[in-house]
């Protein structure tokens, strides 16, 4: 029994090493530089060992994508939980989203295909988690207004379009100063919140 647990633990450690090495390569050289051979060299394993854990580079990208969405959802949830009012929660969540995009730029790029050719992946619960957090707060903000679910979705996509657009502009070709970008972001968030509560 103990040896089975040890073997499982070693497998998980190796899997984590592979993902960490992939992310390190990407941070240093960009997504275009990522290859199974480079990952193997980074952790001093042979390429066939890497294939025992991930069938191809797209499988590694899919796993990093999943981890990125889990991390983003956690950051947004933490930001939400610091506030009581739904409007304040929305602003805090979208600011956490913004901060994530620049703190974990490479993950954001693979999650949303910004400035890279990325694999297509099916929607997963991890990918839906950040959106679900925002939709719940939008519903709270609209409570008592008897609005259809399509209206909640429309408001979510309005938020996401504006914020993702600003992030993409800044990731691909750095926009104005961080201070101006954050003011634009806060103006956009405030405007959308007013359209919900007005």
Automatic annotation (TrEMBL):
<keyword id="KW-0805">Transcription regulation</keyword>
<feature type="DNA-binding region" description="H-T-H motif">
    <location>
        <begin position="35"/>
        <end position="54"/>
    </location>
</feature>
<dbReference type="InterPro" id="IPR050624">
    <property type="entry name" value="HTH-type_Tx_Regulator"/>
</dbReference>
<dbReference type="InterPro" id="IPR036271">
    <property type="entry name" value="Tet_transcr_reg_TetR-rel_C_sf"/>
</dbReference>
<dbReference type="InterPro" id="IPR009057">
    <property type="entry name" value="Homeodomain-like_sf"/>
</dbReference>
<keyword id="KW-0238">DNA-binding</keyword>
<keyword id="KW-0804">Transcription</keyword>
<dbReference type="Pfam" id="PF13305">
    <property type="entry name" value="TetR_C_33"/>
</dbReference>
<dbReference type="GO" id="GO:0003677">
    <property type="term" value="F:DNA binding"/>
</dbReference>
<dbReference type="InterPro" id="IPR001647">
    <property type="entry name" value="HTH_TetR"/>
</dbReference>
<dbReference type="Pfam" id="PF00440">
    <property type="entry name" value="TetR_N"/>
</dbReference>
<feature type="domain" description="HTH tetR-type">
    <location>
        <begin position="12"/>
        <end position="72"/>
    </location>
</feature>
<protein>
    <submittedName>
        <fullName>Transcriptional regulator, TetR family</fullName>
    </submittedName>
</protein>
<dbReference type="InterPro" id="IPR025996">
    <property type="entry name" value="MT1864/Rv1816-like_C"/>
</dbReference>
């Amino acid at each position: 029994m103990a040896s089975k647990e040890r073997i499982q633990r070693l497998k998980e450690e190796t899997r984590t090493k592979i993902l960490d090495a992939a992310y390190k390569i990407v941070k240093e050289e960009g997504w275009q530089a990522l290859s199974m051979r480079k990952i193997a060299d980074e952790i001093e394993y042979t390429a066939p060992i890497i294939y025992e854990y991930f069938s191809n580079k797209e499988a590694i990208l899919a796993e990093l994508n999943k981890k990125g969405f889990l991390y983003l959802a956690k950051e947004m949830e933490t930001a939400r939980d610091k506030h009581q009012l739904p409007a304040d929660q929305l602003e805090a969540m979208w600011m956490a989203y913004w901060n994530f995009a620049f703190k974990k730029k490479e993950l954001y790029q693979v999650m949303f295909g910004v400035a890279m050719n990325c694999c297509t992946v099916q929607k997963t619960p991890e990918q839906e988690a950040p959106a679900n957090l925002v939709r719940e707060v939008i519903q709270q903000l609209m409570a008592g207004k008897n609005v259809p679910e399509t209206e909640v979705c429309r408001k979510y996509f309005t938020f996401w379009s504006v914020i993702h657009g600003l992030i993409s502009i800044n990731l691909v070709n750095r926009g104005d100063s961080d201070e101006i970008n954050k003011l634009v972001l806060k103006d956009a968030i405030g405007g959308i919140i007013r359209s919900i509560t007005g």
